[in-house]
Amino acid sequence: MSLLPLTTLGTTAAAQLRRRQLVVISTGMGMAILLFALPQFLSNAYQTKIATETLLYMGLAVSWTLFSGFSGYVSFGHAAFFGLGAYVTGLATQRHDLGLVAALSLSFLLVGAFASAVGLLTLRLRGHYFAIATLGLAEAMKATVDWGHSYTLGTFGFALPIDIVNRAQETKYYVMATFLIVVVAVGIAILWSSYGLRLIAIREDEIAAEALGISPALTKISALGISGAFTGLFGGLFAWTQGFLTPEAVFAPRWSLELVVMSIVGGAGTLVGPLVGGLVFYLLPEVLIENKVILQRRDELYLMMVGIVLIIVMLFAKQGIFGTLQRSRFWPKGFRL
Amino acid sequence: MIYALMASGLNLIFGVLHVLNIAHGEFMFGGAFVSWFMWNELGFHPLLTVPFAAVAMFLVGVVLQVGLIERVMKENIVVSLILLFGVSLAVQGIGIRLFSVNPRVISHYEGSFDIGGVLLAKSRLTVALAAIPVLVLVHLYLKYSKYGIATKATAQNAEIAEACGINVQRVRYVTMGLAGAMAGVAGSLTIIILPFTPQSGFSYGVIAFVVAVVGGLGSFYGSIVAAVLLGVGQNVLAWKTDQLLSDALIYLFLVAALVIRPSGLASLAKAGTR
Question: Which of the pair, B30 or A8, is modelled with greater confidence?
């Protein structure tokens, strides 16, 4: 994948773009180093666990953005990919005695293939019909897992083998951080490549994009494949960090919904947005719990607060938190992240 | 029948407003708890509470439309969807604050009728029979009343309807109110059969979505047919095969139906008559 086709820009514009890309890369690397240093500043395993889960949420939201944010095709079915990834890793380790690395790779590949197949079938639907088609997907997967209980171990779920799960919380944190960095890097690579431009062209105007010689079908299906593969991978990581999974938990519609909400409230169609969204939606409630403002996630005060935040953001900052910043005059014009 | 009430209301909203009302289940919760409150605290007969639930949810629907949804009408469908998701979460939170998470039920009808060897619970039969006149009323409203016709015109083409002198904005208010009232009725009928918590509304909302989609988004009659088909189909399959298989099959059937015919049963009927 090459960087933006620089020949089409004037030399000063090209140099400016290069400079900005360098700033982004170096900032990103700085943040990555901070991410790896973070456990040193956390006082106990519980805080590390919360940090790990925040990274998981961010990673999932970024994975979702790789397809839905860039192409504009909103998917409400990512819980299906997430749950499938969790189940592949779970069953591979539990039933087939595979190691963690093999199981996670299997999750990545299988779910990627599955997502591409789903794309092949459903991406003929345009606009919100696609969004609606994906709504039933996670439920269908959950029902299938329940039904195939002789293989999938049924409704009550199962625990992963203890010798695979039993790792220090910090190890889990570092693994999660690594994969978050990987998925963000992939996102940046896509955004700055001609492939990303094709995706965004489809988002802006699919018919015009097709007229320019872009194949919308191929672009969309491959993007859904990449997005699904990473979602599956994070699903596998979820299974591993939790050590236990049930169909009810991993195929819950809330996974699909929360990914959409995090990404869009953070900033629709941007890469930084999902990261901001993950902080707001996962870390903030945990901080509030620590300070005894609310008792637990999803208690009534939490629901009310999240609900009201969503309403306010959608009424006054429709582009989301980062999206609004990016459109303001403080941000270099025409430079998207 | 409950599915039919929910899904057809949802479809009215989509048809006229082009908004996917993800907070539809919360209207249902509202209706259910208006009924429960009147039955439990004020001693009303359960069926008598239904009109009150309908009126209350009609008002809530109008207020929601005027206050929030109208402001994002011109935006992408996702904006209103997330806005409504926020409403849904906030209502759940307030609901738990007011009523706690304990399930409530109106245990007015007990026992069952024995019709030719088939046992029918009294409560279920009453509810099914009560839902039908409501659907018929909505049908008559859409077909014969001035506002009903204006509603259909707006759904078909809002700009031309406006050019013909229809106050499209007011039609949107009324539609949202009407759909809210239908969900409210659905809720106050459901709580007669099954226990309800402030968070049950959401899962009913999801089912209603599915039904609405199979019936054809924006189609009032398609969703009624789909609701009956799905309700009967799910029970027959569960009875013939095992429960788990039937659940899996229903959802796979749904996804398949969407892929083959995304616009639902209604378009199938249209294609047939052409």
Answer: B30
Beta bridge partners of A245: A158
User: What does the block give as tokens for B274?
Assistant: 């052409």
pLDDT bracket for residue B274 (50, 70, 90):
very low
Instruction: Let me know: does A83 contact A68? Beta carbons within 8 Å.
Output: no
Mean pLDDT of A132-148: 77
One-letter amino acid at B193 equals I
Q: Do the bridges between strand A244-245 and strand A158-159 make them parallel or antiparallel, or are there none, so unpaired? A: antiparallel
Per-residue pLDDT reduced to its tens digit, B122-134: 667 777 777 788 8
> Thinking of the domain A11-327, which architecture would CATH place it in?
Orthogonal Bundle (1.10)
A-chain residues near B264 (CB < 8 A): none
| Residue showing tokens 């609901």 | B95
Chain-chain contact of B86 with A311 (C-beta, under 8 angstroms): yes
ipTM over 0.90? The verdict is: no
Cβ of A249 under 8 Å from any chain B Cβ?
no
Please report, in angstroms and rounded to a whole number, the separation of the first and last CA atoms in chain A: 17
Alpha carbon B191 to its chain's center: 14
CA distance B109 to chain A (A): 32
Give dist(CA A282, CA B127) in Å, integer. 42
Distance CA(A110)–CA(B267), nearest Å, equals 35
Contact at CB, A129 and B262, closer than 8 angstroms? yes
Q: With an 8 Å Cβ cutoff, is A200 touching chain B?
A: no
Residues with Cβ within 8 Å of B112's Cβ and at least 6 positions away in sequence, in order, are: B119, B120, B121, B122
- Average of pLDDT values for A42-65? 88
B79–A314 CB contact, under 8 Å:
yes
